Amino acid sequence: MSILVSKATAGMQMQAFPVIPIPTSTSMRSISHSSPFRLHSAASITTLLKACKKREHLEQVHACIIHRGLEQDHFLVFLFISRAHTLLSTLSYASSVFHRVLAPSTVLWNTLIKSHCQKNLFSHTLSAFARMKAHGALPDSFTYPSVIKACSGTCKAREGKSLHGSAFRCGVDQDLYVGTSLIDMYGKCGEIADARKVFDGMSDRNVVSWTAMLVGYVAVGDVVEARKLFDEMPHRNVASWNSMLQGFVKMGDLSGARGVFDAMPEKNVVSFTTMIDGYAKAGDMAAARFLFDCSLEKDVVAWSALISGYVQNGLPNQALRVFLEMELMNVKPDEFILVSLMSASAQLGHLELAQWVDSYVSKICIDLQQDHVIAALLDMNAKCGNMERALKLFDEKPRRDVVLYCSMIQGLSIHGRGEEAVNLFNRMLMEGLTPDEVAFTVILTACSRAGLVDEGRNYFQSMKQKYCISPLPDHYACMVDLLSRSGHIRDAYELIKLIPWEPHAGAWGALLGACKLYGDSELGEIVANRLFELEPLNAANYVLLSDIYAAAERWIDVSLVRSKMRERRVRKIPGSSKI
Fold it and tell me: In angstroms, rounded to a whole number, what is the distance separating the alpha carbons of residues 138 and 166?
């Protein structure tokens, strides 16, 4: 056995390839005596490869291949790569075996390329294709679908067009699968005209080709052309119906989506999930829940759609109830469900719940270093008052983006630490990060809560002057609130008059509240009359103006306001308490 290992090792050292595991004398004895893969077995290595169930079995069969000098046998290497792809999470072992082949055939290259593509290792797929051409192997109709899929998966339209030209030169561009892959790639990359050109040029099309073209139209938001193509399809499968359904949902046309859904001859979990997501985005959670209950099959994506729907519609308690239902069904949550769970907890602002969720998430086998997971975890802790945990998460993150900074700044702001929020925003700028519209809304809100007028004014001015960002209604509302709270109510009024569009009621309401606080009945009257036009049935505005008049002892005006409320049938909502 020592001679065998010595020969195997020497043979491998002749090639300048990555080192792969070499069976030891102990493992070779295991093969000879206790293993089902005995070297003297009558069964062929092909049969042994098909019988492999784990990595140790592959290593033992690999030892047999080395022992018998069959490392250059293309068929065995093909089987080995295929089996390794099925059994192992990575392709490093299979790639090492492949690289020892002196002159890989096109079939072997295709096997390696397809294996990388199926594991979504798109950069490795393209790299393997480049090496294939460099080694002089000729691509065929089985090569291009995987490589083109790698381009569509990474939205590399330029590389995809180059592959299209390469397929044309190889004479395989008219192949059904190559053509379908090109349609899919062009559609996902937004090159819908090129996708249509390939589609129209195909002499042979199947339902997958038609569906790929349909998906392309849906991806670019052209539901009219998508519907036209859908109606022309000679045959449809459930994927075709689902694509058309997704097109209507994407455009917010729930009526059209419901028509397609009801007409479907066959529905699957994707069909129900698409409609659940559509109703959730439209705010109709009753319909979303009804469809969820009607679905016979519920995967993790369906659960996620319902839970995130409740969260997006400000119904965190219902989201938590659905999550507990899912737990009882022994469905393992993915990172998207966990993010929704954290968002629901953040909305409730319940510290004990946040601590339970934090503990639960840490026990789940999910990569917690993903940006969206860390951001949600930090945001939840910050909003629920666990600032120590939020700061720890923030400091442990080696690379912080604007989203992470905004979550931390918002948490500091909510808990009355406005100056720290401003310092953190300035630190973000010093690190070279560029604030966006959301970041400015967060910092202006922080300034408003802390009464930091000068800082707020500077940030507001820098939006246009330094970052070329036109202030949105929310930014103006924050500034009006900041100036109003700090007693600069006339400046706030002048700012409202400068807004290039009709200010929303929130800005006027903040100013009216400030007029009451600082006893400015003259301006309060002007602001209240504007609010009566915007919100004629909002009792709060009438009550505020009445209080302003009462503070100024203008009792006749108080009476007039109350008369106006009666005329318009506006009723003040009585106060209540849970105590």
Answer: 11
